[in-house]
Amino acid sequence: MMRFISSAFLILFSAVQLCFAQDSAIQINSAWANLKTQLERRTDIVAHFSAILDQSTLIGKKQLARSRMFAVDLFKYIDTLNIKDSLTIGLAKNKNDSLRQELGKALPKLIQDPEFRNRSDFMGLIAQLEGINNRIVVARKEYNDLCKKFKRFDLLFDANQIDKPPAVIFQ
């Protein structure tokens, strides 16, 4: 009788743990999907932004090509990322950092150009970029908070900059 009770308890405990693990995976995957969507939206905005950057004499063609390359690279990687582990999340973080740094170099130059400051399409894209960057910060924080809650520290995205907005580098 005692063996039956202990076996039943172990089975029940295992079932509860399995449900908890599935629930945590569902929540983390949902938060990841939101973060992924926001990152993909930013790459789309960068593509539109690149068309405007083509017209600037302040931005070198090499820098423009790098911005496009980083945006396309991030989009392709995020779009096909199915397995999340420390390696794949770390690579996505590095690709995101590269794009963010490249944008941080280009934006100050464009904002100084009076021709671009007066263009509504440029200012609209700046506003969209600012909004999407804010949504990325929020989505990244929600995703990282869930990873911490369920003790999945291996899946943290951009763990060193959780509450910092994207940096703009002025040169």
Overview of this protein structure:
This protein has one domain (36-161). It has 5 helices and no strands. Helix 1 (2-53) packs antiparallel against helix 2, helix 1 (2-53) runs antiparallel to helix 5 and helix 2 (61-80) runs antiparallel to helix 3. The chain is mainly alpha-helical. The chain has helices at residues 2-53, 61-80, 86-112, 114-117, 120-149.
Offer a few descriptive terms.
5 helices; 171 residues; single chain; mainly alpha
How do the helices and strands line up, and which of them pair or pack?
Blueprint: H1 2-53, H2 61-80, H3 86-112, H4 114-117, H5 120-149
Helix pairs in contact: 1-2, 1-5, 2-3
Cα shape: elongated
Query: Helical segment tally?
Result: 5
How far apart lie the N and C ends?
A: 77 Å
Q: What is the H/E string?
A: HHHHH
Q: Outline the low-pLDDT stretches.
A: 161-166
Which structural class matches the secondary elements?
mainly alpha
Strand percent estimate: under 5%
* Helix share, percent: over 70%
Question: What is the count of β-strands?
Answer: 0
- As for the number of domains, it is 1
Largest sheet: none
The average pLDDT is 78
Radius of gyration: 21 Å
